[in-house]
Amino acid sequence: MRKYIFLIPLLTVILASCGSGSSGQGSAEPDQEYGAPVEVPSAPPEVSAPETAMGKRLSSLGFQTPTADLPAVDFSLKDLSGQEQNLSSYAGKLVFLNFWATWCGPCRAEIPSMEELYLELQNQGFVIVALNSQETDEQVADFVENVGMSFPVLLDTGGRVGAAYSIRAIPTTYIIDPQGYILGRMVGTRDWYTPEIISLVGDLLP
After folding, report:
1. Taking a C-beta distance cutoff of 8 angstroms, is the pair 110, 191 a contact?
2. Model-level pTM?
3. Residue range 104-128: mean pLDDT, rounded
4. How open is the CA angle 37-50-187, to the nearest 5 degrees?
5. Which domains does the chain possess?
6. What is the mean pLDDT of residues 198-203?
7. What is the predicted pLDDT for the residue at 128?
């Protein structure tokens, strides 16, 4: 069975391994640094693989897709109740890993459609995990309560997970398959509760 890998510096690997793809409709540059920029070499030709039907489908919906198998980086972060949560604890589920912040307008714009998608599919092996970027638990807890976010919210207080996932703008969302491999990345906001996305998620569910 495929495994999540532990948290190590994968900034260059993830950036080099994702295709260009089209991005979402809007994103916000974070106020905080997510790590020093690095020069990323182009992926060698031998890394590329023929695009699968699912890869083409993801690309058509605006996702960037890896050119080779790319394990998701495991991590441990606290939730709003102070409990440690691991990405690997969601193994066996389709994970939408979303990086966001309360000050980010594009992030706020997509939360209602994320909530609708989660409520419809949460009992079918699907989970949204929202990683807040470098804000206090008080800020995040007040926002979550006011907006009514029912999916898991974790606190990336130091920004280390954002750095490991090459987050340069938010919102950014990764789709991670039930075996722990990255299927695609969306940079920017979008309406997540559409027939196309619901159908995509349904076809990817375990």
Report:
1. yes
2. 0.80
3. 97
4. 35
5. 11-31+51-204 (3.40.30.10)
6. 97
7. 98
